[in-house]
Specification:
Oligomer: single chain
Structural class: alpha/beta
Strand order of the largest sheet: 7-6-5-8-9-10-11
CATH superfamily of the largest domain: Formyl transferase, N-terminal domain
Radius of gyration: 21 Å
Number of domains: 2
Helix content: 25-40%
Strand content: 25-35%
Shape: globular
CATH class of the largest domain: Alpha Beta
CATH topology of the largest domain: Rossmann fold
CATH architecture of the largest domain: 3-Layer(aba) Sandwich
Order of helices and strands: EHEEHEEHEHEHEHEHEEHEE
Distance between the termini: 35 Å
Length: 290
């Protein structure tokens, strides 16, 4: 008996395990036995770490009791190959939380992409330590939470953010130019579930007014890096980077505008790839399936 393709549902399967013979065959065999079709499959064997990474998109009969059997067999394969394996609904629209300070460009870009369907998520709320972006969130009908932070109330403020993460069942926290350093405890709590964006120059400039510092040094390249948040400031596994050439004719304000564009692009791509389960951690690096 065949099933009308219009009744099919989609799964995304991601896995990592020690590299060995038979992994792809085992996964494909389980799917085939249950009448599931592989729509896309990508894999990577890291010879340096001897680990194998794989992402599969598959479609099959509408979810019913057979799906539990499929999942059980996949878990058996995972145990056999010492895999870390995850199953995801391909059509899920997960809620995310965006943290922002005063700069609006990355938040505006994420809100717009969500509104036109370019970003498959639901921005459940915007949190800021300043009130400046409230009107922007209101324009898109997204709840805005103003949670000021000082050295005296930092722990309380972070607990309030984590309470929102739990209450809204947020799958990802996006730091869209949130100009606060997360505590090691909060970074560890959100490990693998928080993405940050920051400028990345060659050479690099830290502190305030980085684009003005870059102008004074006459840089020829500016860029932006999107990465997972870890307790080591701006040193988390890199997901995406954007770079462009600049020259002596550009003023500091022009560098700022060009840099903001790069930040928006890199952050949006990183968020999109994470939400579609295309990013897999590989130690201090990432495997990103296109």
């Amino acid at each position: 008996m065949t099933t009308d393709a219009t009744d099919d549902v989609g799964l995304v399967i991601t896995l990592t395990c020690p590299d060995q013979t038979g992994i792809v065959h085992a996964i494909a065999g389980v799917l085939a036995r249950h009448g599931w079709n592989i729509d896309d499959s990508q894999q990577f064997a890291d010879h340096a770490t001897r680990r194998f990474f794989m992402r599969v998109e598959a479609s099959g009969p509408a979810l019913d009791d057979r799906t539990a059997t499929l999942a059980h067999e996949l878990c058996s394969v995972a145990a056999q190959f010492e895999m870390t394996l995850s199953l995801h609904d391909r059509d899920e629209v997960p809620p995310i939380l965006v943290l922002v300070s005063k700069a609006r460009h990355c938040l505006n870009d994420l809100l717009f992409r969500q509104s036109n369907g370019a970003l498959a998520c639901r921005i459940a709320a915007v949190v800021s330590n300043h009130p400046d972006c409230r009107d922007l969130a209101d324009r898109y009908g997204v709840p805005f939470h103003h949670l000021p932070v000082t050295d005296a109330n930092r722990d309380e403020q972070e607990r309030a953010i984590l309470d929102l993460v739990d209450r809204l069942e947020v799958s990802l926290v996006v730091l869209a130019r949130y100009m606060q350093i997360l505590s090691p405890q909060m970074a560890d709590h959100l490990d693998g579930r928080a993405i940050n964006i920051h400028h990345s120059f060659l050479p690099s400039f830290t502190g305030s007014r980085p684009y003005h510092q870059a102008y004074e040094r006459g840089v020829k390249l500016i860029g932006a890096t999107a990465h997972y948040v870890t307790s080591q400031l701006d040193e988390g596994p890199i997901i995406e980077q954007e770079v462009t050439r600049v020259d002596h004719r550009m003023s500091p304000d022009q560098l700022v505008r060009r840099g903001e564009d790069l930040e928006c692009i890199a952050l949006a791509r990183a968020v999109e790839w994470h939400l579609s389960h295309r990013v897999m951690r590989n130690g201090h690096r990432t495997v990103v399936f296109s």
